Structure formats: C-alpha cells, structure tokens
C-alpha cells in the first residue's frame, strides 16, 4: 500500500521503545494502519493525538507488511483535551471508529461525518451544539455497517437528545463492539456521565 491522503487519526498505541502504531480514517481508502517511527518522541507526540487531522503518507514493500507512515499535522485537537466534556466526546468518537470499522474499506460518508462532528465538538460553545451531530454519527455508523437505524432529527431539547443517545447504546454494544477487545463502551459511559452533569 502506497498512498498520501488527508486522514483523521483515530488511534495510536505504543510499539517498542519509541515508535507507535497509528490507525487513521481516510476518505478513499477507509481505515488504514501504519508504523510511525519516533511516534512517541517529543517531536511527534503532539501529532499522535486521536482526533487530529493529519496528512498521511503510507509506504510498504508488500501487502502483508505493515506500512511505514509519515504524519504531518493539519489540525490539532490537543487544546480541547483539557476540557472534560469535549475530550470525552473526541475519545469516544475515535475509539468507536477505530474499533468498529474493518480496515481498507472506504466509507466516505463516515469520513465526512466524523470530520464534521469533531469540528463541531471543538467549535460549538456547549454540548447542545454538537450532541445532535454525535448522535447522527452513531446512527450513520450503524447504517453504513449494515445494522439499520433511523436518521435522528435535530432536537433542541437536551433531555430528548440524551434519550436518543441512551437508546443507541444497545445496538452499538451488541452489533459493533460485542467481539472487540478492550472496553470501548467505557469511553461512552464516561461521556454520558459528563453530559448528565449539564442537566444538574
């Protein structure tokens, strides 16, 4: 696999002493993974934040080899990691995307939707501005992977949106996350707890 494309970094895990394995969602190639030399070093650490928009270059000698990846930062989500609610939303969105999607299957609608909802999380003054987009992304994720789901309508009532958010947990856990390693749904539970504090 040899490609250069805009991407959303959705996961990064340590590999060896200084490297990282990055998983990125691209519009035309879907979810791709790559070995990032020095990914845990001082220079690349700010780039390796899930949610970041990057330009990725992947190169491999064979289809069976994990490609080497070079990442250039386009837009950072780092400033929002100190804000508990946006940080939780970004964490959940990236975790469910990295876990649920098969590699190298293009989902252009999901790429565009994830880019839009991450932008909304970072730009809206409160969760009222981005929760409908997050719920719509979850529904789209279920639909794109063949599990149906109605397209939710925007609702300005936060309680109603939270009820829709709650109803989606069952299908997400049952269809997309049941056989996956790691307690990905825990990231959603943390987000739900922080959303609940908006009502108290």
Automatic annotation (TrEMBL):
InterPro entries: DNA_rep/recomb_RecO_N, NA-bd_OB-fold, RecO, RecO_C. One of its GO terms (biological process) is double-strand break repair. SUPFAM superfamilies: Nucleic acid-binding proteins. It holds the Pfam family RecO_C. GO terms for cellular component: bacterial nucleoid. It comes from the Bacteria. Residues 1-75 form the DNA replication/recombination mediator RecO N-terminal domain. Keywords: DNA damage, DNA recombination, DNA repair. PANTHER family: DNA REPAIR PROTEIN RECO (PTHR33991:SF1). Belongs to the RecO family. This is DNA repair protein RecO. It comes from Altererythrobacter epoxidivorans.
């Amino acid at each position: 696999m040899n490609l250069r494309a805009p991407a959303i970094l959705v996961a990064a895990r340590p590999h060896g002493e200084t490297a990282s394995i990055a998983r990125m969602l691209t519009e035309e190639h879907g979810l791709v993974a790559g070995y990032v030399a020095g990914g845990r070093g001082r220079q690349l650490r700010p780039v390796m934040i899930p949610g970041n928009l990057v330009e990725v270059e992947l190169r491999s000698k064979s289809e069976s080899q994990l490609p080497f990846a070079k990442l250039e930062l386009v837009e950072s989500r780092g400033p929002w990691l100190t804000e508990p609610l946006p940080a939780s939303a970004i964490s959940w969105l990236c975790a469910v995307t990295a876990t649920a999607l098969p590699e190298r299957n293009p989902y252009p609608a999901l790429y565009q939707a994830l880019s839009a909802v991450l932008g909304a999380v970072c730009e809206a003054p409160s969760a009222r501005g981005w929760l409908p987009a997050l719920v719509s992304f979850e529904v789209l994720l279920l639909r794109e992977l063949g599990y149906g789901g109605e397209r939710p309508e925007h609702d300005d009532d936060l309680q109603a949106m939270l009820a829709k958010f709650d109803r989606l947990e069952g299908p997400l856990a049952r269809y997309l996350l049941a056989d996956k390693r790691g307690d990905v749904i825990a990231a959603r539970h943390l987000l739900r707890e922080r959303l609940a504090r908006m009502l108290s």
